[in-house]
Amino acid sequence: MNFSIKFLFFLFIILSPCQLFADSSLSVSVVAELMVDDSSEAGNKMIEWAQQRMGYFLQHSDNRVIIRVPDFNADDFLKILKNTGDIINYFYSTENQDDEIAILEGQLVAKEKLLAVYYNLMSGSDYRSTINLEKEIEALLGEIDRAKGRIEKLINNRDYAMLEINFQSDDYYRETDTSTFDWINSIDFIHFMNEQADYE
Amino acid sequence: MNRKIFFIIIVSLIIISGCSRFTVEKPEGFAAETVKGTFRSFSPEGVKFRIRRFENKPSKEVSYWSESLKNHLEKKGYRLIEEKVNSGGSEECVIFYWLMNYGNDYYIYLTAVTADKKNIIVAEAAGMKEEYEKYRDVIEKSLKTVELY
Question: Distance between CA atoms of B93 and B10, rounded to whole angstroms?
Answer without folding.
Answer: 21
